[in-house]
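Listing S7. Sequence submitted for prediction.
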Amino acid sequence: MGSDDVLLQRLEAGETLAASRAMSVIERGGPEAESLLEALHPKTGRAWRIAFTGPGGAGKSSLIDRVIARERAHGRTIGVVAEDPSSPFSGGAILGDRVRMSHAQGDAGVFVRSLASRGSETGLSALAGELADVMDAFGRDLVVLESMGVGQVETRVRYMADTVVVVLTPEAGDDVQTMKSGLLEVADILVVNKCDRPGAEALAADLKSVAALRERSRGWATPVVQTSVTEDRGIDALEAALESHRAFLQQDGRREARRREALRERVRLLVEERVRADLWRDPTLAARFDAILEAVVGGRTSPHRAARDLAAAREAAAPNSSHHRR
């Protein structure tokens, strides 16, 4: 029996140390991580995945803490993957295990893993999705992903969760016009958090008009929920919205279709990553690159022409190019 098989058995048996070990293997990357992910894949797809995203400072961690409390009251086990900004010195997660998630502390039914963003521009890296796979295989009923928060709401997160919750605050009102395209694309539930602050009602009204436009295109009426963690307001409404979206996706094969779309995007991105890595390892390209770059710097050719010439040179040198198929 291989090491992957032993680890998987321990993982399926609910051993927390095995889950931690699996995540550490995947965070390190390389062939061992890839082998483990391949073994994990058939055991994924059962857990409900909810992603909380939105600008930094919106109160996502505190809101997730309240959701954790509600879900645990229903007896559901939970895994949390929280992505934090990378430390500029160590590359590690700055916020650690999210001290604001008080309901996760000392509860064996809640497993929290923080990871550094490592320069991801999407708010959730591919690694976050892979760690969610571990949580899924570990047997968690619910997997919550939290983005680090970015200036604009990211769109790739829609491929990483069954339900995407976009969290904003009243201060975001001035930015809603520029964020509308992203909101329309990713939000299944819109939350105006810290609704005890001025401007909450106006922002909620604006978001409802955005949601109405999207309803016509996909059949789901995106709810706009106002919450305040400090005043314990709106948590019931958020819980109801989450359950409603879950029920919506269970109908007519919607969840299966969404998962298929997510896996399609995941495979596409992995292919692009491998092709890009192979491209820059090509000795023909490396040999020509510096010379062509000098021509660009000297104004003798343009960056676009340089890219075309490099691509053409690699194609001509490839073993399976048209020259070799004749």
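Caption to Listing S7: primary sequence and predicted structure tokens for the chain studied. The first helix runs from residue 3 to 12. The chain is about 50% helix and 10% strand.
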